[in-house]
Design a protein that fits this description.
About 30% of the residues lie in helices and about 20% in strands. By secondary structure, the chain is α/β, with parallel strands linked by helices. Bound molecules: (3S,4R)-3-hydroxy-2-oxopiperidin-4-yl beta-D-xylopyranoside. The site of (3S,4R)-3-hydroxy-2-oxopiperidin-4-yl beta-D-xylopyranoside (XIL) has 7 residues, from loops.
Length: about 750
């Protein structure tokens, strides 16, 4: 799947420069509605707020757009509301409650009884001795009822008791509950009493027990046990609050699913009360504040997005019992964990992250999608390798052995998700299936293991994205036109030609049709260029140009011709005797761009060296204007005409290219109008009649023009360009490949569609 840079290049080539094209986090346009709207058929979406969030206009805007349940982050806790016995301080709590009253948003009350953020007067005397039980209960009752009464009109549920269950491990014979001062005074009974006092004050409020590490199997069992004992004792407990302070590595979605299932056997209401997902390994209730701005790598963003997306999928599945999901803070700027933990869906500037778009943009159809278990090894696998696999619906399944890894991401998946995050299996292997069906055809990919980039040892490698990457083929319904069949085959041979302008030997691959060696005929020639990040292997290796030609010739659909494929850049600095290889990303483009991290170990076939010389500065301009015109027109064409039986004239010479190769084709055909009679741009821009006329050409001298692209690449420009050219009298063909993007199936099909129009007599 293509990422920002590739999409950017593609848009650039097709003529539309995307406004937000950049490396790193994507800029997401200001939403017009919120998470609460996307989830209106599922559950409320809540948020914990501080005073600034309900006072600053920009923040208010986000709160009101996104959320329909509000929790006071701190203002309703025991200590802030009653710092000293009988001295109430309602200022902050009132501000938030009044904001909610003004906007008609009901509140989750948080929290009545907690061992933290509580005045010690509640449970001990001035000397620090624990109070007698009755006095503690009187304090508790007075506090709980004062606050519940005050906010009855606006608070629809309360976290009555918070974090009273012991953390793991609990050794045999030890209490399942936290050894807090309250527990020491009254044992488990203080929990029951808190619920009774709250219920007495507001019989309509839903009352929750709230805790963290809520999906950890052992602790969730203890939480369940407590609530079960409460129920058995007739305590008015309505729900369980799962704080959901998670991280990108855990809990697993099986654990979350199991916990929800367990809790739902004992309560009718489950809320996620304090959701955030950190990009480090901390979890639960402990505060690990991490100062400073977020400096999060793309792969970490992918892990976070995956965790959020999968979590919400599980939550949607349990919408019967889950009725509110509250984020703990509005944005990373507000987060109790600090922006460097990158925990929320809004960044430190209150801008939505890619995880926001993914959580909001779920496809309900996919929630119940049944994946067919008819997976077969991908046809591009190395000998004997079972994985990756593909199924008949276009899903891909990956398996990678990396027993000590913490995360394994495959750079393929649904658009926007940035990849498929694999999960560790018992045997230490990592497995995962794409979240949805993929486009038919060939895809490059790589693995990101704990931030390092590797190829999948299961597959062959294909040069793309300026490195030899893994490849996978999702069988296309029309694969027959490039299938290897029992028909006469042409040859693809390597030629080395001396290039004076670059002072080096250069490589070209030359396809000669099946009949070439059996006759003395002369043939027309198509010069066919690869795209940015690819090289001269691409067209016959992953493009199957030779097989497409063999099949077309066998079917009598085309005039046989030669194809010449060479490397289309001149700045790679390769030395004689070495294979030419494209260099790393242009300087100035930061490493680790979306899905295309730099500095990756690249496995090259044939033991070729992995290090690549850096491509000189200059970016796209440098790539495009790199002396290739001279190599092609003054060196390669004469070499081919001298060494192959070609018809060495304009009407029998075509140039075409995909993506950047299309840009080169556009430039070179117009710069050397005397050389090429046919032009082809494959996801590589368009021609207009004026620019052709400006170089003195006309429908008489240009024999044919082909423009094509995938239906997912903005095909309107292609259709319009073809129509304009036809209207101006050109033999022009526009072609749109259905259901494909900026990838090789588009270009295989383009070649198949273009070939019959070339060199027609
Ligand atoms: C946190 C607040 O976000 C912080 O501002 C405060 O300093 C400490 O408490 N579990 C809870 C919340 O139930 O009340 C905590 O909130 C986070 C952990």
């Amino acid at each position: 799947m293509k990422r920002t840079l590739i999409a950017g290049l593609c848009a650039l080539i097709l003529g539309a420069v995307p406004a937000g094209a950049q490396w790193g986090p994507r800029t997401i346009p200001e939403p017009t509605d919120g998470l609460k709207d996307a989830y209106k058929d599922y559950f409320k979406i809540g948020v914990a707020v501080n005073n600034r969030n309900v006072a600053e206009p920009d923040q208010i805007k986000v709160v009101l757009r996104e959320f329909n349940s509000i929790t006071a982050e701190n203002a309703m806790k025991p200590q802030p509301t009653e710092p000293r016995k009988g001295e109430f301080n309602w200022e902050d709590a009132d501000k938030i409650a009044n904001f909610c009253r003004e906007h008609g948003i009901k509140m989750r009350g948080h929290t009545l009884m907690w061992h933290s953020q509580i005045g010690t007067w509640m449970y001990q005397d001035e000397k620090g001795n624990l109070l007698p039980k009755e006095e503690f209960y009187a304090n508790m009752k007075h506090h709980i009822q004062a606050i519940v009464n005050r906010y009855k009109d606006i608070v629809y549920c309360w976290d009555v008791v918070n974090e009273a269950v012991a953390d793991s491990p609990v050794y045999p014979g030890r209490p399942e509950l936290r050894n807090s001062p309250m527990y020491q005074i009254a044992g488990e009974e203080f929990i029951y009493k808190a619920f009774e006092y709250a219920h007495e004050a507001d019989p309509n409020a839903l009352l929750f027990y709230n805790d963290y590490n809520d999906a950890e199997p052992a602790k969730s069992q203890r939480i369940f046990n407590l609530v079960k004992r409460m129920k058995d004792a007739g305590v008015p407990v309505d729900g369980i609050g799962m704080q959901a302070h998670y991280n990108v590595y855990g809990p697993s979605m099986e654990e979350v699913d199991n916990a929800i299932k367990l809790y739902s056997t004992i309560v009718k209401h489950i809320h996620l009360t304090e959701l955030d997902i950190r990009v480090n390994e901390d979890m639960g209730g402990g505060l690990r504040f991490n100062r400073g701005g977020a400096n999060v790598a793309d792969w970490e963003r992918t892990l976070q997005q995956d965790q959020y997306v999968n979590l919400f999928k599980v939550l949607r599945k349990h919408k019967d019992v889950i009725d509110c999901v509250t984020f703990w803070n509005v944005s990373d700027k507000d987060s109790w964990l600090g922006a460097a933990n990158y925990p929320l869906l809004f960044d430190e500037n209150y801008k939505p992250k890619q995880s926001y778009t993914a959580v909001k943009g779920f496809d309900p159809k996919m929630d119940n999608f049944v994946i067919k278990e008819d997976f077969k090894p991908s046809e591009l696998n190395q000998p004997g390798q079972e994985y990756p696999m593909v199924n008949s619906q276009g899903f891909a399944r990956f398996k990678v052995n990396a027993p000590k890894a913490k995360s394994v991401i495959v750079s393929l998946g649904l658009g926007g998700s940035g990849g498929t995050v694999l999960r560790k299996a018992e045997d230490g292997s990592w497995m995962g299936t794409t979240a949805g069906p993929m486009d038919e055809g060939f895809h490059y990919y790589h693995l990101t293991i704990d931030g390092g980039v590797f190829n999948d040892p299961g597959t062959h490698n294909y040069y793309g994205s300026t490195r030899w990457e893994s490849g996978i083929e999702i069988p296309a319904h029309d694969a027959d036109f490039y299938a290897m069949k029992n028909v006469p085959h042409g040859k693809v041979q390597q030629v080395l030609f001396w290039s004076k302008s670059t002072n080096q030997n250069r490589v070209a691959w030359v396809y000669t049709p099946p009949q070439y060696d059996q006759n003395k005929k002369k043939y027309p020639v198509l010069y066919l260029q690869h795209g940015w990040g690819e090289n001269e292997y691409a067209w016959w290796n992953q493009g199957h140009a030779n097989l497409i030609m063999d099949n077309l010739i066998a079917a009598g659909k085309i005039e046989p011709f030669i194809i010449v494929m060479t490397y289309g850049m001149t700045n790679e600095g390769f030395r004689p005797g070495q294979m030419p290889r494209p260099a790393a990303r242009p300087e100035g483009a930061p490493a680790g761009g979306p899905g295309r991290p730099g500095g990756a170990p690249a496995g090259a076939p044939g033991g070729a060296p992995q290090a690549r010389p850096a491509r000189p500065a200059g970016g796209m301009g440098m790539m495009m204007n790199n002396g290739f015109e001279a190599v092609l027109c003054d060196e390669l064409v004469p070499y081919i005409d001298a060494n192959f039986r070609t018809i060495a004239k304009k009407e029998s010479r075509a140039m075409a290219g995909l993506s950047m190769g299309g840009m080169e084709t556009h430039t070179i055909t117009l710069a050397r109008p005397e050389m090429f009679g046919y032009y082809g741009l494959l996801s590589g821009g368009t021609y207009n009649p004026d620019e052709i006329a400006a170089v003195g050409e006309s429908p008489k001298t240009v024999k044919g023009i082909f423009v094509g692209c995938g239906s997912k690449e903005g095909p309107d420009q292609i259709r319009k360009a073809a129509a304009d050219l036809q209207a101006a009298g050109y033999n022009a063909k526009g072609y749109v490949s259905e259901g494909t993007a900026h990838e090789f199936l588009t270009w295989r099909r383009c070649l198949y569609e273009m070939a019959p129009m070339l060199f027609k007599k």
